[in-house]
Q: What sequence folds into this?
């Protein structure tokens, strides 16, 4: 069997955010999950021609906030907001509580995987050749800035007796196993006279590098604190030494007195140094001769 994983769920918590923002436990979790599925199915059927790309559901304080991201917000809102108000009342009857509806315009409808899949499905319903529809979708997405596109249709293509699958691409790169790769996935069904035809689209928009998370480690924190304390002590010592040097330069600290220099002698004065007498008679005789010669030379 083929081992497949949904590209959105595979990257959830890494580069993708949840589309249902609420918390529940036990039976309440089951009820909220079923409500979310019913809300998304209702919006998909009612706004079939509004190019709805995504539905985000948030639950806070007994209020359900439904955010609809679409390529055609004017169709969802209607004249003076009448259509969106009717949609809100229908959702309140479906949920049985208070509902708020927000409408946002999707920033990149030309390279949105869900909208491209719905476009291919609508063309197949209008009896356009599926290969032509896929080829045009791939070329348009690559022209609008996508780095990789892949399409696949499955079912009784062209009214064939045996169902099969046909693919277009991948054009460019579509790294499905890379978590940081921004790969969007879209799925839509074309309802034809000979059965439903599924359309899948993968679009690669580049890499998203998640922010680094700092892990707390008490041992490293203690070491960092110790290093900071030692640095502060060294800074205090350096500051004290710098202050002392500055005071010396300003003349605030007296330098220690220099050692007394010996009295200078005149050019003619001779300083005699007593020579220790040796016990050897030969050395003593030589010293006596030197003393007599020195005495004769003196005036």
A:
């Amino acid at each position: 069997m083929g081992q497949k994983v949904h590209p959105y769920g595979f990257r959830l918590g890494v580069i993708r955010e949840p589309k249902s923002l609420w918390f529940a436990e036990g039976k309440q979790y089951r009820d909220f999950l079923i409500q979310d599925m019913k809300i998304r199915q209702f919006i998909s059927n009612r706004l079939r021609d509004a190019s709805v790309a995504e539905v985000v559901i948030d639950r806070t304080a007994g209020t359900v906030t439904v955010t609809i991201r679409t390529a055609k917000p004017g169709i969802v809102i209607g004249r003076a907001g009448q259509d969106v108000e009717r949609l809100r009342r229908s959702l309140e009857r479906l949920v049985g509580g208070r509902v708020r509806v927000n409408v946002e315009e999707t920033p990149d409808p030309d390279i949105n995987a869900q909208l491209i899949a719905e476009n291919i499905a609508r063309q197949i319903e209008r009896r356009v050749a599926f290969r032509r529809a896929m080829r045009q979708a791939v070329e348009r997405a690559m022209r609008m800035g996508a780095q990789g596109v892949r399409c696949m249709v499955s079912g009784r293509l062209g009214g064939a007796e045996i169902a099969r699958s046909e693919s277009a691409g991948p054009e460019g790169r579509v790294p499905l196993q890379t978590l940081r790769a921004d790969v969007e996935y879209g799925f839509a069904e074309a309802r034809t006279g000979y059965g439903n035809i599924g359309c899948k689209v993968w679009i690669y928009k580049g890499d998203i590098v998640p922010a680094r998370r700092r892990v707390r480690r008490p041992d490293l924190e203690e070491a960092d604190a110790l290093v900071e304390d030692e640095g502060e002590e060294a800074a205090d010592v350096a500051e004290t030494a710098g202050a002392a040097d500055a005071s010396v330069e300003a003349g605030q600290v007296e330098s220690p007195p220099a050692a007394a220099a010996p009295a200078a002698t005149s050019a003619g004065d001779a300083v005699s140094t007593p020579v220790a007498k040796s016990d050897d008679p030969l050395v003593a005789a030589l010293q006596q001769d030197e003393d007599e010669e020195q005495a004769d030379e003196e005036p």
User: Anything to note?
Assistant: The domain at 110-207 is CATH 3.30.1140.32 (Ribosomal protein S3 C-terminal domain). Confidence is low (pLDDT under 50) at residues 258-273. DSSP finds eight helices and eight strands in the chain. The first helix runs from residue 7 to 10.
